[in-house]
Design a protein that fits this description.
Shape: elongated
Number of domains: 1
InterPro entries: ApaG-like, ApaG_domain, ApaG_sf
Protein name: CO2+/MG2+ efflux protein ApaG
CATH class: Mainly Beta
Organism: Paraurantiacibacter namhicola
Helix content: under 10%
Oligomer: single chain
CATH topology: Immunoglobulin-like
Distance between the termini: 29 Å
Length: about 140
């Protein structure tokens, strides 16, 4: 069975030696278009290209729908984890986003701490959420 993320990551941002890569897929089987609900899953890969360890502490998302409504999401870690990434380490996780419109976007940042306990803000690249045309009715 093929993984829905078997393609290359579509969006990348690099901040102070930390790369955040995103692959996003519309999920028709989890959407209820007739009820005005569209759903996407996204796969994030965080790569520590620095020479020191970093630990993810918080996430901040800006989710915008096609009407321009903005939902800000802040919280600890990602999917219940606060991974420690040594130099050269990567961390992958998958999460999802429902919208009440067939199009929207996500972007944001993670807050890490470095070996000295200093905060490091790492950008999450902007990525569109777009349902195929046959799923927008």
């Amino acid at each position: 069975m093929a993984n829905i993320f078997d393609h290359l990551f579509q969006h990348t941002a690099i901040t102070d030696g930390v790369a955040v890569r995103v692959a996003v897929n519309f999920m028709p089987e989890q959407s209820q278009v007739d009820a005005g609900r569209w759903f996407w899953v996204y796969h994030i890969r965080i790569e520590n290209r620095r020479h020191d360890a970093i630990q993810l502490q918080r996430r901040h998302w800006r989710i915008t729908d096609a009407r321009g409504a903005v939902n800000l999401v802040d919280g600890e870690g990602v999917v219940g984890e606060t991974p420690l990434l040594q130099p050269g380490d990567t961390h992958d996780y998958v999460s999802g986003c429902p919208l009440s419109t067939p199009h929207g976007s996500m972007e944001g940042f993670y807050t890490f701490t470095d070996d000295n306990g200093d905060p490091l803000e790492v950008r999450i690249p902007f990525f569109p959420l777009a349902a195929p045309a046959e799923e927008t009715r």
